[in-house]
Amino acid sequence: MKINNKLNIPEKHILIVGNRSYKNLGDELILLWTVKLLSEQWKKITIAAYDPERLKKFFSQFIDISKITFVTEIPKGFRSWWKYIITGKLKEWKIYRKVDAIIIGWWEIITEENKHSYRYRLVSLLPCLRKPRYLMWGIQLPKKFFNRLFFKMILKRTKYIFARDHETVHDMKTYWYQNVKFFMDTSFFAYPRKKILNSKFWILNWKKYIVINLNKNAEKFLPEIIQDVKKLYNQWYEILYVPVAKGRNEHYDDIRYMHKIQKKTEIKDQRFNILDREEDFEIFVKTLAQAHMVISSRLHLFLIASFLGVPTKVYPYQKKILKMQKVIEKD
Q: How do residues 90-138 score in pLDDT, each as one tens digit?
């Protein structure tokens, strides 16, 4: 697959919003490679995040963060607004207002599959609503009245859309918006494939194992995944579970599904373990690259595995996963 590594954004100082950084691997890798692309064009970068300090720590494994400004994302609820105010975060609005343009990005950024996504995207722009903006990744055209209204407000100052699937490109052009083109989900390239292929790590540490993941949105697939795990475990495969998201909210707490799978399969020995992706990301990727198979409901674990050439079995809980499967098959 050819890598289009040129983001056609002429403005100098770019604010990136949309990544809520709830310890979600996919969001972090999308952001990481987007930052790399902008850095190659000598852009000044500001990132709005749910937990800036935690994001700094994770990114320091990959890039020099000294020239990147991190600010706290604009809160979405009443309680978070109160905490935002009393901790003095309002003063960060001066930084928001200094940017030249905004990238709104990550996952299926505007979709009615996520209840508040249209409103959240607008709220994230409050200090800089009049700035030009660029949308990146998946968009689904809204059907509900208020979502249609919010969508028009978002598009009003949008200069260009970089869509990670061909369906979004088609839908936007049919809708009326013509400044849109395909641009591969940047997490797909967030780790150098050549570095993995040239590594001797897997020769020294080879084991017979599969890598699995499940999240709240795909809980309906739990019985099927349990059957998959049982079958492969009985064939003497080790089971490695990846908590892609590590948040406290049930939608971002993947670890609870490891416990459910382990309980239902009644696996109690040392052949069911956690594959951590935060402690040492390089070891995580090398381990993933040599898995017999990846079984996942998370889009970005599927993307990374596909990039590394690992066979995947996906349980799609949202349309975005099916769309990205088509992209990889086509390209």
A: 999 999 999 999 998 765 567 777 778 888 888 889 999 999 999 987 7
Does residue 260 share a domain with residue 116? no
In the Cβ-directed half-sphere of 190, how many Cα atoms lie within 13 Å?
Answer: 28
Looking at the domain assignment, is residue 6 inside a domain? no
Neighbours of 100 (CB within 10 A): 16
- Dist. CA 84–CA 80, nearest whole Å: 6
163 - beta bridge partners? 182
Quote the distance between the C-alpha of residue 61 and its chain's center: 18
Domain stops at, among 125, 156, 189: 189
Q: In degrees, to the nearest 5, what angle opens at C-alpha 190 toward C-alphas 184 and 195?
A: 125
Residues 6+ apart with CB under 8 A from 9: 38, 41, 43, 101, 103, 134, 160
Please answer whether residues 48 and 21 qualify as being in contact, where contact means their C-beta atoms are separated by less than 8 angstroms. Answer: no
The CATH number of the domain holding residue 98 is 3.40.50.11720
Judge whether 23 and 247 are in contact, CB under 8 Å.
yes
Segments forming the whole domain that contains residue 254: 193-330
In this structure, is residue 272 part of a structural domain? yes
C-beta separation of 308 from 284 below 8 A: no
Q: Mark which of 161, 189, 217 sits at the end of a domain.
A: 189
pLDDT band at residue 319, thresholds of 50, 70 and 90? low
Instruction: Name the token pair of 17.
Output: 């919003």
Strand partners, 181: 162
The pLDDT value given to residue 134: 95
Q: What is the DSSP letter of 290?
A: T
Q: Looking at mean pLDDT, say which of 23-32, 161-170, 315-324 comes out highest.
A: 161-170
With a CB cutoff of 8 Å and minimum separation 6, the contacts of 22 are 50, 245, 246, 247, 249, 252
| pLDDT per residue as tens digits for the range 176-220 | 899 999 888 777 666 665 665 555 454 445 568 999 998 887 888
Number of domains present in the structure of the chain: 2
Which residues, other chains included, contact 113 with Cβ-Cβ below 8 Å and sequence gap of 6+?
A: 140, 318, 319, 320
